[in-house]
Automatic annotation (TrEMBL):
Catalyzes the oxidation of 5,10-methylenetetrahydrofolate to 5,10-methenyltetrahydrofolate and then the hydrolysis of 5,10-methenyltetrahydrofolate to 10-formyltetrahydrofolate. GO terms for cellular component: cytosol. The keyword NADP applies. Keywords: Amino-acid biosynthesis, Histidine biosynthesis, Hydrolase, Methionine biosynthesis, Multifunctional enzyme, NADP, One-carbon metabolism, Oxidoreductase, Purine biosynthesis. GO terms for molecular function: methenyltetrahydrofolate cyclohydrolase activity; methylenetetrahydrofolate dehydrogenase (NADP+) activity. The keyword Transmembrane helix does not apply. This is Bifunctional protein FolD. It comes from Bosea caraganae.
Amino acid sequence: MAEQALIIDGKAAAASLRAEIGLEVAAIKARRGLVPGLHVVLVGDDPASRVYVASKEKLAAEIGMSSVAHRLPAETSEAELLAKLAELNADDSVDGILVQLPLPKHIDTGRVIDAIDPAKDVDGLHPINAGRLAGGKPGLVPCTPLGSMLLVKSVLPSLSGLEAVVVGRSELVGRPVAQLLLQADCTVTIAHSRTRDLAATCRRADILIAAVGRPGLVKGDWIKPGATVIDVGINRLPDGKLTGDVDFAEAVKVAGAITPVPGGVGPMTIACLLRNTLTAFHARRG
Ligand SMILES: Nc1nc2c(c(=O)[nH]1)N[C@@H](CN(C=O)c1ccc(C(=O)N[C@@H](CCC(=O)O)C(=O)O)cc1)CN2
């Protein structure tokens, strides 16, 4: 039988991370009578966003955090959303604030993110947190990149000196995960739609992170034998099935380890949001 890659179980890793955070939340409650609070703001009725927000609300409550979802109608104005954020910023019981993305087109996403108190920005997207990450300083780090790194580290004992290629340069994933790989002493390339020979660039990677949102873009022969492949793509096909940015059937025959979609990075995103909420709690309330 042909060899195949280790399939990294993101669902199991996320469950064990949540259990760990749950123990810490219980200890905080028992010792200090305090409860870390996560507030998620959803504007509009994008079906996928509704599911993700419900999941965040449920999983936060499950580990004993106080968890509130603010569901605002699609017609909410930017000024109304900014007023809601000002209210959450001023509320001392709120440790983490997250605005679910994407926002409706009439709202300027950058202005909204800028309005979140950086100390409560559990998505790690505020320019202060992005700047801290770029400078190698501690701060709140975006959840999907954080989860991707935990999965990479679960299969690679040391990242130092490895070639890492990140396909995609989004603020949510590509740029921050590249910073984290750099902090781990990888040699990092960020590839994107203008990269001249994307296949050859990917083939150099000991660690390949695909985060472009193009189903099956990364083919088996783009992968260096034995590489660790992290598929961040979550693409819904016309038949309703979810698929990643990597052609899994081909890649699994070449890679050393690979994340599936679903069941890979996705569940780690929410577990890392809970971890960030705890980090924000400790930074704010000691
Ligand atoms: N403010 C933010 N908005 C968005 C983020 C984010 O990190 N911050 N990320 C994505 C959506 N997202 C969380 O918000 C998210 C996506 C996917 C999953 C997940 O667990 N996916 C499962 C499959 C679920 C399904 O069947 O639909 C998996 O991959 O196994 C969790 C969170 C965009 N918006």
